[in-house]
Write a structure and sequence with these properties.
Elements (H helix, E strand, L loop, with lengths): L1 H19 L4 E4 L9 H8 L2 H4 L4 E3 L8 H6 L5 E4 L1 H9 L4 E6 L6 E6 L13 E4 L6 H9 L5 E4 L4 H4 L5 E5 L3 H7 L7 E5 L11 E5 H6 L1 H20 L1 H14 L6 H14 L9 H13 L9 H4 L11
Amino acid sequence: MKKFFSLILIIFFFSFLTIASAKTITFIPQWLPQAQFAGYYVAYKKGLYKRYGLDVKILTGGPEAPSTKYLINKKADFGTMWLSTAIQLRASGIKIVNIAQIIQRSALMLVARKSKVKCLRDINGKTVGVWNKSFQIPLKAFFKKYNLKVKMIRMSSINLFLRGGVDVTSAMWYNEYHKILVAGVDPKDLLTFFFYKYGLNFPEDGIYTLETTLKTYPEICRAFVKASIEGWIYSFKHPEEAINIVLDFMFKAHVPASKVHQEWMLNRMRDIILPPFGKLFKNDYMYVANILKEQDLINYIPSFKKFYRPIYIKDVKK
């Protein structure tokens, strides 16, 4: 009997060593440090990842370090990206899986000055500021749905809109829209088009990993999602502390920071991160996938069951 228990202890010990000696888990958000990713920074700073036995390294995303490429090339174990982008990857043969859908209501919008645009139809024939290709999918769907012929111009900031370089600009409610207001533009002078109000609710940030990672390390994946969700819950309950943590990450990454802007962003994230926390609804998935197929952006619709692999769901009271 003693030998039996000794054997069990040895097995447990080496199993623990296998997990403990594993490489550092890397996570990369799709953009530079900001309150859009507060939950992950808070989970790291407050030791929530370590509480679940994870040694997490958070990388800096952005145009020079796309989360998609880092996941594909296995330079990161986990990353965030928009649902539309992930469906494209899966349809192209890359076995990426969604293990938690964080944002369920789209924050994407178009913003125009009322002096140039007074209604939806007025966008026709106008110049529209857009981001890179991976963020253009819902925009193209919007223009197609409402039969709008526009000239899309690549932009890197809302300065192009502020200086009159484009008639209409793409914006995220939690980010660029607020920057326009901070720049001194009166909201009464603006006309806004929220995509979710126009029948184009493309869920955005989700947590993704490769299928092989999920199969090999299911408990690590579950722990990462659980700790991240707890990080978001803590952020919403302690916004001042969360913002200070975000600002610290921004400072270390040499990203210009405004506390007021980050407070706005965190508040808006609370508005669009809806319970049940981490759930991707099949109707939302099929809606986005069908639009991608209609636009010939994918050749087929990947199986929802193979794409979405929920490992932890929690309701959050706002």
